[in-house]
Amino acid sequence: MANLGVSKRWVLLLLFVQSQTGHGHDEDAHTLRYTHDTFSAQVGKRNHFVMFYAPWCGHCQRLGPTWEQLAEISNEGDNDIRIAKVDCTIESVLCSEQDVTGYPTLKFYKAGETKGVKFRGTRDLPTLTSFIVDHVGGSSTVEDVPSPPEAVNGLLELTEDTFEKHVSSGHHFVKFYAPWCGHCQKLAPTWDDVANSFRNDDVVSISKIDCTQHRSICGQFDIKGYPTLLWIEDGKKIDKYTGQRTHEELKAYVLMMLGKNADEPSRKSSSTDGLPHAILSLTADSFKQGIEKGLSFVKFFAPWCGHCKRLAPTWEELGKKFFGNDNVNIVKVDCTLDVSKHVCNEQEVDGFPTLYLYRNGRKVSEYTGSRTLDDLYDFVMTHLKTHDEL
């Protein structure tokens, strides 16, 4: 019952503080400041909500007034929660011990415990307050046991705790993003539509992860810009999507990847939805298997290469022409990716673009002619007919 009283006081105090918004607060007038020497002793006495920060951090500066409001709500009287902060530019050892890898990091500590529960929500006063009430007023333990991700209209929001296990098996199309990124904001409704299109498909999951909150995962996948869209299979990056970000193109890409890589031969023809997009992206891990059957016309390229950029739309059109043909694969390999460099060296690629034709996994020809759609198409058809006549 005591906990219920705490929760009620929190709601009343929140309403009071919100009614005072607009009246200035002296920064840190109520917020407790801890050092390495005082942290353990104080956290052992009461529940604590602690902000680990750096003074130069813009996100920390924006959170400061809200954090002071939380402190004004809590840090007086007999409330069972204290609001504190730790300057990691001064207390670097303490922040390292508390596994602080970015700023601000917000953690709730149960009285007497040294392991905190990381706050991962939006940093507004109502959300922060609800988080505190849930932990002070509830009976849950401090163990930070991640809940399995739940899809909203087919879209999964992943975190550092859920990402690795979730993508460890199966096919995944993942958006790595930052909330402040304009291109990400523009893509968001389209990404929702893509997820909704595959909400009943148990072969693929469409997900997203906020790189400002979950930096370790984004660092692991070498994310350099936002948004980055990766195709992941069984925990490994297979391809980076670089096409148009329309609903139709993104959906077609998923269907193409499933049709080529899933162990479902019928999916290629039965799941196209009439969307002609059929370029198979391969890496060193998937190259041998990807070209082992039929004719495979492979473009080895580099994204920065001007000739490659000019060829790209023609190569897409070539893929469309052979989309329904199970005997022909139109393939591309990005030789700048770490997961592809080995196969490019092995195939003796010494310039971009390099176009090789393979039959049942064996290299049979290098194409050096005109790169018009008609000439490329005729080249493939000539080899296809020659084989059929043998």
From TrEMBL:
Superkingdom classification of source: Eukaryota
Signal sequence, renumbered to the chain: 1-24
Keyword terms of this UniProt record: Redox-active center, Repeat, Signal
Matches recorded under CDD domains: PDI_a_ERp46
Gene3D superfamilies: Glutaredoxin
GO molecular function, a single term: protein disulfide isomerase activity
UniProt GO cellular component terms: endoplasmic reticulum
UniProt key word Repeat: yes
One Pfam family, short name: Thioredoxin
Domain Thioredoxin intervals: 21-157, 160-254, 256-385
Record carries keyword Signal: yes
SUPFAM superfamilies the record matches: Thioredoxin-like (SSF52833)
InterPro entries: PDI, PDI_thioredoxin-like_dom, Thioredoxin-like_sf, Thioredoxin_CS, Thioredoxin_domain
GO biological process: protein folding
Family label: Belongs to the protein disulfide isomerase family.
Protein's name in the database: Thioredoxin domain-containing protein 5 homolog isoform X1
Source species of the chain: Temnothorax curvispinosus
Lineage: Eukaryota, Metazoa, Ecdysozoa, Arthropoda, Hexapoda
